[in-house]
Amino acid sequence: MAEEIVNRVAQSKLVTFNLENHYPEGERVVFDVKDWLLEGFVLREKDFRKEAQKHNWEAYTGKFVALTCSSDAIIPAWAYMLLATYLQPYAKKVVSGDLETLETVLYTEVIQKLDVSELKDKPVIVKGCAHKPVPKNAYLLLIEKLQPVVKTLMYGEACSSVPLYKKPKN
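Structure (tokenized):
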């Protein structure tokens, strides 16, 4: 008679934490100021302001916006601040930087708001292999949030996890 196969992972107290489940839904958009610069490098305040005034900002309604400059131009802080004033009534979030910076900021906000009290003294595995853009910094922020609470912390899948932290015994 064959022995019954037991799924020990399913029976364990191991809790899987998947950052993808906390992915902020919404379209991500890169706004490149290069096109508003003289020859792609020189910011002329008067021209820049004129472009900002006539731009269709409503097109960014409900979107996450990353303000950047793809040329090597030096963009003063006030220029991004000015654009943010136009975007503020429409965009969900505006950051200065690329898409990875945007994702990091979004995940920072999500992780700061997480209630991890239910994970107290439990073994937790942080799921890897994201299908959505989860920045590396989000994993580091999550470790910062979980480590003081959990019993053990691992990364990967239950069948092939990498141990990261084990709470010292008192």
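Residues 8-24+103-166 form one domain. Residues 6-11 have pLDDT under 50 and may be disordered.
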